Every structure is written in structure tokens, then in C-alpha cells.
């Protein structure tokens, strides 16, 4: 990166370390922190949306919709979610390729040949001629969907509970005023449920943060991948030879996650205070007493 | 049928190294998948049960230290709980493994006796230690919350009976705290069992392909390119395991609440799986 780093063999001490930490591979390592944050930024709203849909569906008056909602919300109960993270991307990938094979391939060739899942080259996703970054972002895309489905189910659980926690009298009053079920939902239920949902959603956010290293299991080049790659001992054939430094890289990642969860906790404390004010809950009552 | 019995004989205890040496390579039958994945469950139960047992005592000590210990005890307890609850278990496994690998290979000399260290890098010991510390931190937070919620009236009643210190803690505070904490602790136990599936996906190597249930499931899914059989099988096994745990903890819950007729509410399982 810097001109002085042209010949790392001649460098020593701090200058060597500075050049080492700004090498091209390290830049990719730092970028992968961005991948994690990007994943969080995309997954959180999508999962919330899925959860919202799931919760509304399981309160629906239409029976099939309700069954779907209930199944979705209870899907992740009892099953370790890493199983879903392993299962959903492969299943989705095969589903996409299967659909494309139906459209683009010769129908006389079976897709499942014994133990193998084979589609013709035109149906491969991404195409084998596609550049490396397409393969990477396709992996991230599948990961985002897997995360959104699993965390959507969690969020549906939380939101369903929160919707049930809104005092019944409020909803009945709204109905007595002649509001339609849709209006009751939009004007009374949804604005009021957030304070009940927040503890659960905050907890979910923490769990989501701590689930991001599983990207590595999905084969995405994330921080864990780079930490193992960069930290492994390098012989003098490399520009920057060093012994096994993986522990330092992993300690760095540990600190990154501790900072993330610590910062989030501070943030949620603030929101909690704001949402509790004026609510007929214990926290709201305590705030009212403290103010008067 | 008899073929399946043979498979059960060959692979039933494969996860702990008893039976056929080689894993099946082709023509996987449903029976093979059920048997091998089931035998992998031995490791999940081993990690979960032992970590839960040891972690329970550790967590109690931590909770008391965080609640009422002197500052030199309270601060480390708080930091310990923050460290293990604030970071992903997956990363904790990696850090622990890399740290344990750094230990000298030949062993450490303590007063002339060589203490072997190589066994620490094996999953059965290294991963177990991480799981114990992790569950201790999570449970300690639950117990700490319960200790803070012990009703004031019960403490005053204990004082009135002339109980103090250890007697009061053992006979009044601790049983009540356990009663209050038990539903949350049940969930923690379930998460712990689910978390054991991470062990062989972190650095810890599966010695001679002796892995847990998810290790075998992903082995089958990789070999057959078919995720629709192996993963549902693990999922089914884990639902059974979860139901057993809920039953087992429900018995304890009823016993803890036996003096309060009608108070033993059914434990509601709230899924918060990953750490």
C-alpha cells in the first residue's frame, strides 16, 4: 500500500508491523468486517418483516393462513438453528437450479443421477463463467435468506407474544368506536405492541450478532475465514513470514463482537426508556413517579 | 431388516470408536443414516449433560459473587459473565482451541512431574471446558436475576426465625431462587444442548471421524448432495431430545414448587437458540 512497503524483508519493528497490517490480504480482512455488518443491516429488517408477516398470519381469521403462521413460528423450536443454516442454503440452491433446469435444460436428462444432483451448465447458479465476486455474493445472498428465515421465525414468536400482550380493553374500545379489524390493527395494536416486543427484539438482535460467525460454516469468506487464512504460520516464501498468529486474530474478532454487543446494549437501554414513558407498565409507572 | 440390525451393530456406537472403522461410502440406506446420526447424538448428550452439571455449580458461585461478593470477587464475576455472554460461542471455541494448541507439546513440568497437555486440544476436553464456562456465564445471569427477586417477606421471615448467613442462604434464599429461575434455566439447558452441535464445526477436529450428530448429517448431505434426508433426521432427534429435557426439568420444577399447590406452571419453551 505504502511505497516504503515495497520490500518487506528489509523492514523491522513497527514499520514492518504497519506494512504487514496494511497488506492487500489484510484489506480484504477488514472489508469482511463490512460483510458482517452488511449482513446484519440487511438481515435485521428482512427478518423483522418475515416475523411481522408470521405474527399477523398466526392471528389471522383465515384458517389456512393461520396454520401457515403457526407452523412457521414454531418451526425453529426444538431444532438447533445451525441445522437450518446448513439446510436452507443447499435446499434453496438446489431449488433455484432445479427450476432453471426445467426451463433451460434438456428434459430427457434426469437431474438426480443416483447420488448426484446434476443440472446442465446453462442452469448452474451462478454460471461457471461468472467472475469470482458473483460466486461470493451469491453465497452471501443465500446466507442472508437463511438468516432471514430463521430469525424471522424467532421474531414472529416475539411479535406474536407482544401483540397478545396489548391490553384487550384497548382493542375492544377501538372496535366500539366502529373501527374495522384492519384499522384496529394499524392504529391501536401495532403502535402499542412495540414496548412489549422490545425486550424480545433486543435479545434477538444480540443473538443475531452472535450468529454471524456462522457465515464461515456456509462457506462465505468472512472474518473467521480470513483470521484462519492470515493467522496460519507463514514460511519465508511469503512476503511477511511469521509463526502461528491465529490466536491474536481470533482475540481481535472476540473484541469486535464484545464491542458490538456492548454498544447495542447501551443503545437498547435508551430506546427502552423512551418507549416506556407514558405506558401503563411497571417501567412507565416508575418513570412517571420519578418525574413528578 | 436383518441388514439394518447388522448396520446397527456396525455403526451404533461408531461415534465413540466401537464397531466398523470405515464410514459407509456409497449406496447410503436410510437405516445407515438413522444409525450413524443417532450414534453421533452420544457426543451431544455427553457435552450437554456434563457441561450442564459442572456449569450449574460454577454458575451458582458466580451468581452469589456478582450479587453480594466483595468488589474483588464481584468485578471478575461481572467481567466473566460479560465476556462469555457478549461474544459468540463459535468464536470462543476458536480462541480456546488456538490457545490450547499453543501449550507446549511435550507437557509442562510442575515440580518435576510432567503434566501432559495434548489431551486438552481434543474435543472431548477442550470443547467441554468452553461449554462449561459458557453455560456457567449464561446460567449465572439467570440465577443472579432470581436471587434479586427473592421476596422480601421470606428474608424477613428467615431473620425472624434467627437464621443468618449460610443457614439462611441454604434453607430460604437458594430454594426460592431456584424455584424462580427454573423456567429460564430449562430454556438455557435446551440451548446448551443445541449449542453442542457447533463443536465439530469449529477448530476441534473429529478424531478418526468420531463426531456428533450434525457432523454425520453434514457428511451424508455432502456425499449424497441431498439435504432433505439427513438434516430432517437430526432435527427429529433434537426435537426428541428437547422433549426429554422439558420432561426431566418439569419433574424438578414440580418438586421445587411442591409447597405451593397450583404454582408449578408449565414451563414455556422460548427459543433463543444461538449464542
UniProtKB/TrEMBL annotation, chain A:
ABC transmembrane type-1 domain sequence ranges: 33-259
UniProt keyword list: Membrane, Transmembrane, Transmembrane helix, Transport
CC terms in the record's Gene Ontology section: plasma membrane
Cellular localization per UniProt: Cell membrane
Main location as per UniProt: membrane
Membrane topology classification: Multi-pass membrane protein
A Pfam family of this chain: BPD_transp_1
Entry's transmembrane regions: 27-53, 74-92, 138-160, 196-227, 247-264
A single BP term in Gene Ontology: transmembrane transport
InterPro entries reported in the protein's UniProt record: ABC_transp_permease_HisMQ, MetI-like, MetI-like_sf
Gene3D superfamilies: MetI-like
Family: Belongs to the binding-protein-dependent transport system permease family.
Protein name: ABC transporter permease subunit
Native organism: Paracoccus litorisediminis
Species classification: Bacteria, Pseudomonadati, Pseudomonadota, Alphaproteobacteria, Rhodobacterales
From TrEMBL, chain B:
SUPFAM superfamilies tied to this protein: MetI-like (SSF161098)
Membrane-crossing segments per the record: 45-67, 79-103, 123-144, 189-208, 228-252
Membrane topology: Multi-pass membrane protein
Domain ABC transmembrane type-1: 41-252
Gene3D superfamilies to which the protein is assigned, alphabetical: MetI-like (1.10.3720.10)
GO cellular component, one term: plasma membrane
Compartment annotation: Cell membrane
GO biological process, one term: amino acid transport
Keywords: Cell inner membrane, Cell membrane, Membrane, Transmembrane, Transmembrane helix, Transport
Pfam hit, one: BPD_transp_1
Family matches, as InterPro entries: ArtM/GltK/GlnP/TcyL/YhdX-like (IPR043429), MetI-like (IPR000515), MetI-like_sf (IPR035906)
CDD domains, per database record: TM_PBP2 (cd06261)
Similarity comment: Belongs to the binding-protein-dependent transport system permease family.
Protein name: ABC transporter permease subunit
Originating species: Paracoccus litorisediminis
Amino acid at each position: 500500500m505504502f511505497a516504503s512497503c515495497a520490500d518487506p524483508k528489509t523492514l523491522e519493528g513497527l514499520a514492518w508491523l504497519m506494512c504487514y497490517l496494511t497488506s492487500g490480504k489484510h484489506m480484504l480482512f477488514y472489508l469482511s468486517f463490512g460483510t458482517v455488518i452488511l449482513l446484519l443491516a440487511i438481515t435485521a429488517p428482512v427478518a423483522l418483516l418475515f416475523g411481522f408477516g408470521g405474527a399477523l398470519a398466526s392471528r389471522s381469521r383465515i384458517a389456512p393462513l393461520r396454520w401457515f403462521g403457526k407452523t412457521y413460528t414454531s418451526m425453529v423450536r426444538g431444532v438447533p438453528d445451525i441445522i437450518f443454516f446448513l439446510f436452507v442454503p443447499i435446499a434453496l440452491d438446489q431449488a433455484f437450479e432445479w427450476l432453471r433446469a426445467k426451463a433451460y435444460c434438456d428434459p430427457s436428462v434426469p437431474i438426480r443421477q443416483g447420488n448426484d444432483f446434476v443440472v446442465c451448465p446453462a442452469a448452474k447458479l451462478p454460471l461457471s463463467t461468472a467472475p469470482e465476486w458473483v460466486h461470493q455474493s451469491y453465497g452471501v445472498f443465500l446466507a442472508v435468506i437463511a438468516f432471514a428465515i430463521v430469525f424471522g421465525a424467532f421474531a414472529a414468536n416475539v411479535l406474536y407474544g407482544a401483540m397478545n400482550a396489548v391490553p384487550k380493553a384497548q382493542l375492544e374500545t377501538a372496535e366500539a368506536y366502529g373501527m374495522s379489524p384492519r384499522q384496529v390493527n394499524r392504529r391501536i395494536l401495532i403502535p402499542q405492541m412495540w414496548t412489549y416486543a422490545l425486550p424480545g427484539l433486543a435479545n434477538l438482535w444480540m443473538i443475531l450478532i452472535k450468529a454471524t460467525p456462522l457465515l464461515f460454516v456456509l462457506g462465505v469468506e468472512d472474518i473467521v475465514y480470513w483470521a484462519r487464512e492470515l493467522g496460519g504460520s507463514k514460511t519465508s516464501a511469503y512476503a511477511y513470514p511469521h509463526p502461528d498468529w491465529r490466536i491474536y486474530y481470533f482475540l481481535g474478532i472476540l473484541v469486535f463482537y464484545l464491542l458490538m454487543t456492548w454498544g447495542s446494549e447501551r443503545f437498547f437501554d435508551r430506546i427502552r426508556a423512551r418507549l416506556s414513558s407514558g405506558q401503563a407498565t411497571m417501567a412507565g409507572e416508575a418513570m412517571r413517579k420519578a418525574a413528578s | 431388516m436383518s441388514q439394518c440390525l447388522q448396520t446397527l451393530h456396525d455403526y451404533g456406537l461408531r461415534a465413540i470408536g466401537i464397531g466398523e472403522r470405515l464410514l459407509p461410502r456409497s449406496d447410503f440406506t436410510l437405516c445407515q443414516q438413522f444409525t450413524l446420526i443417532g450414534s453421533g447424538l452420544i457426543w451431544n448428550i455427553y457435552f450437554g449433560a456434563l457441561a450442564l452439571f459442572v456449569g450449574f455449580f460454577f454458575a451458582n458461585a458466580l451468581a452469589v459473587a456478582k450479587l453480594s461478593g466483595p468488589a474483588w470477587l464481584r468485578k471478575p464475576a461481572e467481567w466473566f459473565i460479560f465476556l462469555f455472554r457478549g461474544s459468540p460461542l463459535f468464536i470462543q471455541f476458536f480462541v480456546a482451541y488456538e490457545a490450547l494448541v499453543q501449550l507446549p507439546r511435550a507437557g509442562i513440568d510442575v515440580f518435576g512431574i510432567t503434566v501432559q497437555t495434548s489431551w486438552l486440544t481434543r474435543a472431548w476436553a477442550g470443547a467441554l471446558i468452553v461449554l462449561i464456562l459458557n453455560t456457567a456465564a449464561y446460567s449465572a445471569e439467570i440465577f443472579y436475576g432470581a436471587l434479586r427477586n427473592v421476596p422480601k417477606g421470606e428474608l424477613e421471615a428467615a431473620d425472624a426465625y434467627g437464621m443468618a448467613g449460610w443457614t439462611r442462604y441454604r434453607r430460604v434464599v437458594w430454594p426460592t431462587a431456584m424455584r424462580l429461575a427454573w423456567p429460564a434455566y430449562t430454556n438455557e439447558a435446551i440451548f446448551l444442548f443445541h449449542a453442542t452441535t457447533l463443536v465439530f464445526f469449529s477448530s476441534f477436529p473429529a478424531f478418526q471421524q468420531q463426531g456428533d450428530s450434525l457432523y454425520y448429517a453434514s457428511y451424508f448431505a455432502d456425499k449424497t448432495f441431498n439435504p432433505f434426508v439427513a438434516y430432517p433426521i437430526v432435527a427429529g432427534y433434537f426435537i426428541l431430545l428437547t422433549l426429554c429435557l422439558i420432561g426431566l426439568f418439569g419433574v424438578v420444577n414440580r418438586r421445587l414448587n411442591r409447597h405451593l399447590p397450583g404454582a408449578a406452571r408449565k414451563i414455556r419453551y422460548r427459543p433463543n437458540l444461538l449464542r
